[in-house]
Design brief:
Blueprint: E1 3-10, H1 14-25, E2 30-34, H2 40-45, H3 47-62, H4 79-103, E3 107-110, E4 112-117, E5 120-125, E6 128-139, E7 143-145, E8 158-160, H5 161-164, E9 174-178, H6 182-193, E10 197-201, H7 214-226, E11 237-243, E12 246-251, E13 256-259, E14 261-264, E15 268-270, H8 277-280, E16 303-305, H9 316-331, E17 349-351, E18 357-361, H10 364-369, E19 374-380, H11 385-389, E20 396-402, E21 408-414, H12 418-421, H13 434-439, H14 450-462, H15 466-469
Parallel strand pairs: 1-2, 1-6, 2-3, 6-16, 8-14, 9-10, 9-14
Antiparallel strand pairs: 4-5, 5-6, 7-15, 11-12, 12-13, 17-18, 18-21, 19-20, 20-21
Helix pairs in contact: 1-9, 3-4, 3-6
């Protein structure tokens, strides 16, 4: 018997899970298919276990100031216990996810999904096969790690970021972190704080391909240096072999580096194979990403795709936002007034490293490329009573406004809790009113959040935007 659904979701990572939940909450009959671990990469091998370890890393980092606060004693790190702790957290979250989907009446299928026809999916599990019929399908199959030439993932020796959380960490304290992107910048810090001797190998300046400002990247570089972490820049790993008990990495230029194991942070590629997309006419680009329009529809209008399988913006944040867009466009019934567009610029980007970096919207370069004239308001944490009381004054808030209108173009937060603080800018009803809302906000004191108010006031005063932001002229203030 073929089950019939309004929406069938392929993949249970953050994009797939949220799409299924939102669909059910909007009254649709929903099915979700997962071929491996429920919760996908983010829950089992990505942001959830990483955030668990990051909290531990921050506690270790903060202990440098304990003596000055009258706190004595020493801390010791047990990486195996740290791994067990994140496993416990992952299981708890996974149980919560599954329970919530059951309570919403979402039908869950374990197996490999592939298109059998335009509106039908076959779910293969072992020797069995179940067929689902769906008015709409959402592809949320995520991505997988990729390794550069000369490096092949090797159990207990060369690990991808996925493998890092599949099993307890390998023996040995000498570890190479390879890659200058998000994964490299985060795990170089996390693993160092968790007691490992990290050598960080990067081909270029870390995070140089992101939209973070030079000021933000400088703050991160200085924070890492304070913890004794400096990347070996301008080189790459060209070979690897196990020799006399060591993992020996050959570097460009002929040098060798002996470590106990290595972590690859060298990027990810979309996971879109095995779905029979070509058979039903769903197009992919030459890198394997599913082609979508601004409403996240594929070349089949009733099939949507979200998250890592759509573009290089491979974050759980983006997948969650995509899911909301796709479900809204499905339930709107094609009404132009109710449809939403994908907007990657206004989904927060966050880096969890020696100092947190968070941003949203345009940076100055993108603003100028769009023909806009950016104005910047700045507030540093170095004089913040809250930050001073926490012995954690590194960082700042930067607000980028449009010089004529006072509309918010983008923003950046560097410092403790940046990933939480950035949400203050994601909740405004529109970008035109955000800075005015900040300037008129009543805030708790002392807090880090009040630096948004200070930055908005500074921007208004410095650039002559009092009328737009305060609603009064300079002479009336």
């Amino acid at each position: 018997m073929t089950e019939v659904f309004d929406i069938a979701v392929i993949g249970s990572g953050p994009g797939g899970y949220r799409a299924a939940v939102l669909g059910a909450l909007r009254g649709k009959r929903v099915a979700i298919v997962e071929k491996q671990d429920w919760g996908g990469c983010c829950l089992n091998r990505g942001c959830v276990p990483k955030k668990d370890w990051y909290h531990s890393a921050r506690l270790i980092a903060a202990s440098r100031t304990f003596a000055g606060r009258g706190i004595s004693g020493s801390l010791a790190v047990d990486l195996t216990r740290a791994w067990e702790h994140q496993e416990t957290v992952v299981r708890m979250v996974q149980d919560s996810y599954l329970d919530y989907m059951k309570r919403l009446g979402i039908s869950m299928y374990s197996g490999n999904a592939r298109f059998a026809s335009l509106h039908a999916l076959d779910v293969l599990a072992g020797t069995g096969c179940e067929r689902l019929q769906a008015a709409h399908v959402i592809i949320a199959t995520g991505s997988k790690p990729t390794a550069p030439a000369g490096l092949v993932p090797l159990d207990r020796r060369i690990l991808t970021s996925d493998m890092l959380f599949d099993d307890p960490p390998p023996p040995g304290r000498r570890v190479a972190v390879i890659g200058g992107g998000l994964i490299g910048a985060e795990f170089a810090f996390i693993l160092s704080m968790l007691g490992l001797q990290v050598r960080w190998i990067t081909r270029r300046l870390p995070l140089s391909r992101t939209r973070f400002s030079p000021q933000a990247l400088t703050a991160l570089r200085e924070a890492l240096r304070d913890h004794g972490i400096e990347p070996l820049e301008g080189t790459s790993v060209t070979s690897s072999e196990v020799r006399d008990g060591d993992l020996v990495l050959g570097l460009a230029g002929g040098q060798e580096l002996a470590v106990d194991w290595a972590l690859l942070g060298t990027g990810r590629v979309p996971f879109t194979d095995g779905l029979a997309l070509d058979a039903v006419g769903i197009e992919r680009d030459d890198r394997g990403f599913v082609r979508v329009n601004e409403w996240l529809q594929t070349s089949l209008p009733h099939v949507y795709a979200v998250g890592d399988c759509v573009s290089e913006h491979m974050t759980a944040n983006q997948a969650l936002a995509d899911a909301a867009v796709a479900v809204q466009n499905i339930v709107s019934g094609g009404s132009p007034q109710a449809q939403r567009r994908r907007d990657v610029l206004w989904v927060p980007e966050v880096v969890y490293s020696a100092v947190e970096l968070a941003r949203i919207g345009l940076n100055e370069d993108l603003a100028e490329d769009a023909g806009l004239e950016p104005a910047v308001g700045f507030a540093a944490f170095e004089k913040s009573p809250c930050a001073l009381g926490q012995d954690d004054t590194r960082g700042f808030v930067r607000l980028i406004g449009e010089l004529d209108s006072g509309a918010l173009l983008g923003a950046e937060v560097v410092g403790s809790e940046a990933g939480e603080l950035i949400h203050m800018l994601a909740l405004a009803p529109d970008h035109a009113s955000t800075l005015a809302l900040l300037a008129h906000a009543w805030v708790n004191h002392p807090t880090r959040a009040e630096e948004f108010v200070n930055a908005a006031e500074t921007l208004a005063s410095k650039w002559g935007l009092a009328d737009q932001i305060f609603g009064v002229s300079d002479r009336d203030r």
